[in-house]
Specification:
The protein has about 160 residues and is α/β, with parallel strands linked by helices. The chain folds into two domains: about 5-75, Helix Hairpins, CATH 1.10.287; about 80-155, Roll (Chitinase A, domain 3), CATH 3.10.50.30. It contains three helices and seven strands. Strands 5-4-3-7-6 form a five-stranded mixed beta sheet. Strand 3 and strand 4 (about 100-110) form a beta hairpin. Helix 1 (about 10-40) packs antiparallel against helix 2 (about 45-70). The longest helix has 30 residues, at about 10-40. The chain starts with a strand and ends with a strand. About 15% of the residues are buried.
Length: about 160
């Protein structure tokens, strides 16, 4: 049985929109590129045609991958998750025990992880160390630079 992928409703909508765009605008643009390249004559030595066909293959693979992902999605909401411990979709405020710095993260699935937006995967080293922890607990995380300890200051939605 295929593995379930947990995502927020918002992320599912983003992927669905991207699939729609690729199937309509994307396919149309690729078809135009292929037609243009064909009009240049001999296809056996036509780099423009080969590039357009390769673009088409890459786009179709992307569509297939996103549709497979969508077929395995289970939509989850932060409102459905308890606040007593850290779970997927938990937002946490952490204090670095070494330097006292504070940081906020949201734990998400691999597909939604975006470090710049402070969304970390539950399968990342930090995510794994935080899952199941409660307010006031210390999470120890092994990183390339050594071991970091974070105190859980807040768990919220």
């Amino acid at each position: 049985m295929p593995e379930v992928i947990y995502m927020t409703k918002e992320r599912v909508r983003e992927i669905e929109e991207e699939v729609r765009n690729l199937k309509t605008k994307g396919r149309k643009e690729i078809a135009q590129k292929i037609a243009e390249a064909r009009s240049h004559g001999d296809l056996s030595e036509n780099a423009e045609y080969d590039a357009a066909k390769q673009d088409q293959e890459m786009m179709e693979n992307r569509i297939s991958k996103m549709e497979l992902t969508l077929s395995r999605v289970q939509v989850i909401s932060a409102d459905e998750m308890p606040n007593d411990k850290i779970y997927i979709l938990s937002k946490v405020k952490l204090k670095n025990k070494t330097n006292g710095s504070l940081i906020d993260y949201m734990l998400v699935s691999d597909e939604e992880a975006d470090f710049e937006k402070r969304k970390i995967s539950v399968t990342s080293p930090i995510g794994k160390a935080l899952l199941g922890k409660s307010l006031g607990d210390i999470a120890e995380i092994n990183v390339p630079a050594g071991r970091i300890q974070y105190e859980i200051l807040d768990i919220y939605k």
